[in-house]
Amino acid sequence: MTRVLHILDHSLPAQSGYTFRTRAIMKAQQAMGWEVAGVTSLRHPLPGPDEHVVDGLTFFRTPGVANGRSPWRELGEVRALAERIGELAESWKPDILHAHSPVLTALAADRVAKRLSIPLLYEIRAFWEDAAVGNGTGTEGSLKYRLTRMLETRAVRRADAVAVICEGLRADLVRRGIDPAKIMVSPNGVDLELFGTPPARDGALAGDLGLDEADVIGFIGSFYDYEGLDDLIEAMPRLVALSPKVHLLLVGGGPMEAQWRAMAHASPVAERIHFVGRVPHQEVERYYSLIDILAYPRKAMRLTELVTPLKPLEAMAQRRLVAASDIGGHRELIQHGVTGTLFPPDDPAGLAKSLADLLADRAGWEERRTVARRYVEEQRNWFSNIRHYEPVYQRLLSGSGYDAYRVQDRQRTSQVKTA
């Protein structure tokens, strides 16, 4: 039985797109008969036991606290995580190390992989330097940006195989000189166990929010600047003028929440803009049930051009209409006029017109919902996508380094039994 140790920044029970993708991967691998566990870095945000079972998945924690200033703090994080991976390599005996970005996890895993000749797959969900720019904590082209990019490229070169979530990331690595044969694409997908049956409209919740007779545009996710919700809020007066029954429902939270709430409060249609804050994951479907069109107005920048988001796929699985900015990450998921609507990025007036046109032309709504749902079921279902890993794992397990590791492991086990 193949045993895979996933090396993670953080995990469940923390809730984020990162942890939900991890959950989907590990659950699907379990269903295939593989034995899986995860180990989290010092960045895991929640207290808990050193070995934590969540939703049937085992996560080992790295003890300690990240202290000091950058880059000493990050060096300490890598050292602590590498020590923990080494301990688990001896006790849990993984066949594969599967590190998930950011690059710190790959740097830690690489130390153990090379020392013990365990195959290492490094999976990139976004480049750390670009994520920092998108989150407002970094500047493109700065010294820190360039150094982080160099570390990322080095980690990719040293890994035995590399997985990326989309073609945009793959193309960028190829431009850096990485062998295309070394890179696999494991696209974002939907766990249909969680989003399998679209819910009926929650009339009680609609009444509580004042949305009984409304046409509802919605966003469910994290409030980062690159998500472009300021453009959506700015578009609302024009949209209300074109579609008088429209309301905007914003579910989630994040660094931009206070600023966007203030912007909405100052809007001439403030009464049409509803913030509900973060909601428990098990409650999210209730809010999906109220929304006619999920809008994703991501700004045009390097991060969003390269990286595909998960939320539009979840919306399609819920049989919600999807409208999104016309950027590279969205074009990999959405076929304009077929599975969704693409509108100009960074353009509130164009956004308002696209949404108003979609609200005015309802004849094709049902067909579009059906086509989008089928696309998720057939091409973006996690239990299908997970098979992308299998041939890569098998190729790595057939390597000479892995054979040497297993010989050493058998010798150590034999010595223990003899003693």
Describe this structure in words.
This protein is an alpha/beta fold and 419 residues long. It has two domains: 3-189 and 382-418, 3-Layer(aba) Sandwich (Rossmann fold); 203-379, Rossmann fold (3-Layer(aba) Sandwich), CATH 3.40.50.2000. It is 46% helix and 17% strand. The chain has 18 helices and 14 strands. It has helices at residues 17-31, 72-91, 103-116, 128-134, 143-158, 167-175, 203-209, 229-242, 257-265, 284-288, 302-306, 311-317, 328-331, 348-360, 365-379, 382-385, 389-397, 400-418; strands spanning 3-8, 35-40, 51-54, 57-61, 96-100, 120-124, 161-164, 183-185, 215-222, 246-253, 273-277, 293-296, 321-325, 341-343. The strands form two sheets. Strands 3-4-2-1-5-6-7-8 form an eight-stranded mixed sheet, sandwiched between helices. α1 (17-31) links the parallel β1 and β2 (35-40). α8 crosses α14 (348-360). It is globular, with a radius of gyration of 23 Å. 43% of the residues are buried. Mean pLDDT is 92; it is low at 400-419. This is Glycosyltransferase, exosortase A system-associated. Residues 17-189 form the Glycosyltransferase subfamily 4-like N-terminal domain.
Provide the low-confidence segments as ranges.
400-419
Radius of gyration over all CA atoms, rounded: 23 Å
Indicate the multimeric state.
single chain
Fraction of residues in helices?
Answer: 40-55%
Any idea what the shape is? globular
Per the CATH scheme, the topology name of the largest domain is: Rossmann fold
Quickly give the CATH architecture of the largest domain. 3-Layer(aba) Sandwich
CATH class of the largest domain: Alpha Beta
Describe the sheet with the most strands: 8 strands, mixed
The helix tally amounts to 18
Task: Determine the structural class based on helices, strands and strand pairing.
Answer: alpha/beta
Compute the number of structural domains: 2
Placed side by side, the strands forming the largest sheet appear as 3-4-2-1-5-6-7-8
Number of strands: 14
Residue-averaged pLDDT: 92
